[in-house]
Amino acid sequence: MITLNGITKSFDTKAVLRGVDLDVPNATSLVIIGGSGTGKSVLLKCILGLVAPDSGTILLDGQDVAEAERDAFLARFGMLFQGGALFDSLPVWQNVAFRLMRGRTKRPREEARDIALAKLARVGLDAHVADLYPSELSGGMQKRVGLARAIATDPEIIFFDEPTTGLDPIMAGVINALIREIVTEMGATAMTITHDMTSVRAISDNVAMLHDGKIRWHGPIAQLDDCGDPYVDQFIHGRPDGPIASVR
Question: Quick one: 123 and 104 in the same domain?
């Protein structure tokens, strides 16, 4: 579904991506791991076209994204943002239905509300939540609303940016389970960036480690613990000493 070939990106003199090569098969869940500041978010922004890579190609279903019609291209994506990124001034249902009422295939208000209520129910939120405002919700509920918004248009591809950040372990487990269930149900292609190894093991089919601007290792989750790469081994076990610490 997504192919990255030789993606580079620098900001002033700082090289963030140094030649990223990566394939994301259709209807699979890929989790990208790596330390803070290694370029994980920049990589997602390059795929979405929010940041232009300096070189390399990004293919979506075999088509160069640089040549794609912008609105049609973005309509294929859903996104769960790290901080929720809900609109404080809008009630929950309008947050979920935001794209439905403003997108390429604009829906009537009542139809958009019905879809929003259905998506909220899918993430375990009752109808009474629909007319509340984000400030009236707990962090876990806000994250569920963000997930409902991400799937509101039944996208082919869903990006998850640190989906469990700021949540307690139980709520993080709930969100991980929802992500895994929804991605499987929808047959969507998913890309997630996270530091949370519990999330990695719960939601991924494949894992890629980004380090020093390149993909250090890429393979099935079942091979992660025995991949033999010292960088991956240090990261997934949270060891303070190792090759990653030696280059900082």
Answer: yes
Q: Is residue 169 part of a domain?
A: no
Same domain, 92 and 56: no
**108: containing domain:** 77-154
pLDDT at residue 246, as a whole number? 53
Whether 172 maps to a domain, the answer reads no
User: Residue 156: its pLDDT value, please?
Assistant: 94
The three-state (H, E, C) secondary structure of the chain, written as one string: CEEEEEEEEEECCEEEEEEEEEEECCCCEEEEECCCCCCHHHHHHHHHCCCCCCEEEEEECCEEHHHCCHHHHHCCEEEECCCCCCCCCCCHHHHHCHHHHHCCCCCCHHHHHHHHHHHHHHCCCCHHHHHCCHHHCCHHHHHHHHHHHHCCCCCCEEEEECCCCCCCHHHHHHHHHHHHHHHHHHCCEEEEECCCHHHHHHHCCEEEEEECCEEEEEEEHHHCCCCCCHHHHHHHHCCCCCHHHHCC
Q: Could you report the average pLDDT of every consecutive run of 10 residues in the chain (248 residues)?
A: 95 93 95 88 91 94 88 89 89 95 85 96 94 94 94 94 89 91 92 92 95 94 94 91 70
Number of folded domains that form the chain: 2
